[in-house]
Amino acid sequence: MNSWTSREYRCVCGKLLFKGMILEGFVELKCRHCDYTLKVEGVLNRKNFHTIILDDECHILNISDSTVTLLGFSKSELIGHGMEIIETMTKDKCHEILKKVKDSGSIFYKTNYRNSNNVSIPVNTKVIFFIQRGKEYALIIFKPVITDYDIVNKENEGDYGDVTVHLDVLGNIIFAEMTNKAKKELNYSKEDLIQKSIFDFFVKKDKEKYIKSFNDAVIKEKSIRVSNKFLSKDGNEIQIDSYLIPYYDNFGTFCGFESSGWIVK
Description:
Helix content is 20%, strand content 39%. It is of the alpha+beta class. The chain folds into 2 domains: 7-144, 2-Layer Sandwich (Beta-Lactamase); 156-263, PAS domain (Beta-Lactamase). The chain has a 5-stranded antiparallel sheet with strand order 6-5-9-8-7. Strands 11-10-14-13-12 form a 5-stranded antiparallel sheet, with helices on one face. The protein is globular, with a radius of gyration of 21 Å.
């Protein structure tokens, strides 16, 4: 059983100020060595992702304001209730996932949450097991798969698209997966894409425009839609519509984008 309990907070001089997990509020950590003050924001206060804390029986103990706003419930309607009040999975399935989290430390999966109007919202979910003061908890960090509700629904075109890539904040490809259709059209292997800039594959006339849009999305940590022509290995121009969704590490630090793209014929 692994416990994800700590992050090291260090001064600019390198001295360790605190090791642990700050869940709520804002804390100032002052270095006794150089008098530098580090301001730390609790994970429940962060506005760039949504968080829920569960006990070892899948009951909601605390929930971020951003989650409450997204789902449309009040805190009193959720705190103390089982996770199945918003999770579209069954209660038994929720407990099964919690057991996996305890065994592995953390897991990532896609699911759907139910808002106050009983509308299903697809989300990317990271669940992290931790122990605090001898008690076991789970921290849920999630992002809606599509945050712009005017984006065209792509359900009939596959859940993950023809091309799925993860991009760092510079636009470099750090993960790539393609359907057989995409492999045939683009003629690239995953190795051809990894560690290359996504913009190296854009046709020249689109490149400058989308670099600007990408950099703006990085600054604002927002999702964007990209519809452009992608150069195949053979030099053919393939139209691809993509949706770039921000993703974050365990501590809520913005890491880049998860992109799902569909080949348009």
